[in-house]
UniProtKB/TrEMBL annotation:
Superkingdom per UniProt: Bacteria
Name the record gives this protein: VOC family protein
Family matches, as InterPro entries: Glyas_Bleomycin-R_OHBP_Dase (IPR029068)
Organism whose genome encodes this protein: Jatrophihabitans cynanchi
Length: 165
């Protein structure tokens, strides 16, 4: 382990690529109100929808999600509830569910993490063009979402325009 702000040479992830922390919230609107009151957070519009998901055995299915990002960021707070799909449930607002990282090369980073005993839990995205998020769990239990840096500009444009609305 290194001290200060140095990234360990063998680190597969860099903290400067962290862009969101996800907290599970069964009632997203109530969680938004609570975090606004206690942490002063403001919120982008709540998103509801379905998405494609795959588990490691390759089985594909449609999942449902209710998610919202804080206007404040980076690092953004993402709240969400996944009533149908691979996202495991968690205790509401108690511990971070996962950490979202921008990634230049998701397939290579995913493989490097798996070579270091991380386990692929599931992937989400589009049926055409492949996953836009790969979720891996470290041997210590941390869950990380790898997101292609190629969509960062689109995400930032969304957060800017939604924050002004």
């Amino acid at each position: 382990m290194t001290g200060g702000n140095a990234v360990p040479r063998d680190a597969l992830l860099n903290h400067t690529d962290l862009y969101h922390v996800f907290l599970h919230a069964t009632d997203v609107e109530a969680a938004m109100a609570l975090l606004s009151e206690h942490l002063g957070l403001n919120w982008l519009p709540v998103m509801r929808g379905t998405y494609s998901a795959w588990v490691p055995d390759g089985q594909a299915f449609t999942a449902e999600a209710v998610t919202v990002y804080s206007k404040e960021g980076p690092v953004y707070v993402e709240l969400g509830h996944f009533p149908v799909g691979p996202m495991p449930t968690a205790t509401d607002l108690v511990n971070p569910h996962h950490f979202g990282y921008w990634c230049d090369d998701v397939p290579s980073t995913k493989q490097a993490l798996q070579d270091s005993d991380w386990k692929l839990e599931f992937e989400v995205g589009r049926e055409v063009g492949g996953p836009t998020g790969s979720y891996l769990r470290s041997p210590a239990g941390l869950l990380v979402e790898l997101v292609p840096r190629a969509i960062k500009e689109r995400f930032e444009a969304y957060t800017r325009s939604a924050a002004q609305a």
